[in-house]
């Protein structure tokens, strides 16, 4: 028995070699007669006779699908005895992902299962891959050759897109993606003390990472600062919140608290606005230091001269 392989949706021809001693010929699929000589018995219009000569008897099946797979028999009747030639048609089907998990949002520490079901002939290999490009802890490369990808105790670093690929070498892989969003409470990554001179602009900055994005509040001691106080502006955008003093006065110096919060929690950081010498004051101090150095040098020279005279 011969084997014929055909990708799905392609046409497949079945050939049968005969000679001039043949009196009758027929093609059968299992026990169903498709053609007897030139007479078509099949009601399937995809099946047509391709050749009926003294040496060859062939049929063709257009738009092959998986239901066409199976044994086909060429039956040849000669004057002496019947002969049969068999071929088994194997239909190959390109990989197709038929069901995949929807995009998902979870809290950090949760367990996540992603599903990717695929069909094809031969059965495709399903592979999961994390596309973030981030560096993971040892042993956590997030490549899985399975329909299900399970992540226990998911972390914020494991958020991003996960790619499912179905491969069986019949056609190009079928690829789909799932986005995983990991919620986590805020943590303040940048909050530095800042100096400003009286009468100048002073800016305090507070940067926090969080999903969902954090909301910010500013406090001085126990008093919450509002965006409308004279000479003060609070501006929060994305991860960054700024507290701006347009004309710093003595009363503005001190300790400020930045609070970052979302539905999973809150955190805070202390930031000091301290007095910074103005350029004029700094320049004046430099001049005083230079004068003191000159006086010390003059005194030293006088002492050396007095010693020489003696």
UniProtKB/TrEMBL annotation:
Instruction: Give me the stretches of Acidic residues compositional bias.
Output: 277-302
Main subcellular location: membrane
Region annotated Disordered sits at 276-310
Question: What's the protein's topology in the membrane?
Answer: Lipid-anchor; GPI-anchor
Q: Name the InterPro entries for this protein.
A: Ig-like_dom (IPR007110), Ig-like_dom_sf (IPR036179), Ig-like_fold (IPR013783), Ig_sub (IPR003599), Ig_sub2 (IPR003598), IgLON_domain (IPR050876), Immunoglobulin_dom (IPR013151)
Q: Which residues form a coiled coil?
A: none
One Pfam match: ig
SUPFAM superfamilies linked: Immunoglobulin (SSF48726)
Q: Which GO terms describe its biological process?
A: cell adhesion
> What is its subcellular localisation?
Cell membrane
Domain Ig-like, chain residue ranges per copy: 1-85, 95-181, 185-272
Q: Which UniProt keywords apply?
A: Cell adhesion, Cell membrane, Disulfide bond, Glycoprotein, GPI-anchor, Immunoglobulin domain, Lipoprotein, Membrane, Repeat, Signal
Output a single Gene Ontology CC term carried by this record. Answer: side of membrane
Any signal peptide, and if so, which residues? Answer: none
Highest taxon in the source lineage:
Eukaryota
PANTHER family, per the entry: IGLON FAMILY OF IMMUNOGLOBULIN SUPERFAMILY-RELATED (PTHR42757), OPIOID-BINDING PROTEIN_CELL ADHESION MOLECULE (PTHR42757:SF17)
The similarity annotation says:
Belongs to the immunoglobulin superfamily. IgLON family.
Which protein is depicted?
Answer: Ig-like domain-containing protein
């Amino acid at each position: 028995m011969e084997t014929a392989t055909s990708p799905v949706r392609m046409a497949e021809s079945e050939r049968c070699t005969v000679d001039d001693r043949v009196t009758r010929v027929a093609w059968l699929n299992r026990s169903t007669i498709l053609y007897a000589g030139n007479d078509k018995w099949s009601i399937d219009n995809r099946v047509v006779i391709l050749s009926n000569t003294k040496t060859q008897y062939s049929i063709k099946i257009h738009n092959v699908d998986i239901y066409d797979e199976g044994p086909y028999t060429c039956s040849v009747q000669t004057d002496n005895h019947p002969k049969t030639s068999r071929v088994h048609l194997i239909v190959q089907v390109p990989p197709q992902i038929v069901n995949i998990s929807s995009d998902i949002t979870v809290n950090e520490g949760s367990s996540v299962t992603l599903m990717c079901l695929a069909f094809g002939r031969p059965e495709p290999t399903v592979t999961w891959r994390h596309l973030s490009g981030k560096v993971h802890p040892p042993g956590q490369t997030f490549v899985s050759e399975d329909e299900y990808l399970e992540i226990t105790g998911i972390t914020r670093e494991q958020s991003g897109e996960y790619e499912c690929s179905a491969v069986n070498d019949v056609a190009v892989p079928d690829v789909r993606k799932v986005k995983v969003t990991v919620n986590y409470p805020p943590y303040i990554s940048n909050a530095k003390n800042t100096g400003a001179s009286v009468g100048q602009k002073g800016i305090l900055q507070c940067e926090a990472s969080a999903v969902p994005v954090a909301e910010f509040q500013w406090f001085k001691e126990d008093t919450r600062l509002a965006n409308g106080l004279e000479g003060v502006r609070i501006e929060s955008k994305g991860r960054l919140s700024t507290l701006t003093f347009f004309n710093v006065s003595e009363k503005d110096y001190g300790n400020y608290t930045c609070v970052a919060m979302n539905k999973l929690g809150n955190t805070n950081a202390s930031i000091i606005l301290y007095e910074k010498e103005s350029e004029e004051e700094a320049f004046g101090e430099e001049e005083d230091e230079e004068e003191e150095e000159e006086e010390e040098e003059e005194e030293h020279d006088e002492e050396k001269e007095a010693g020489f005279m003696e």
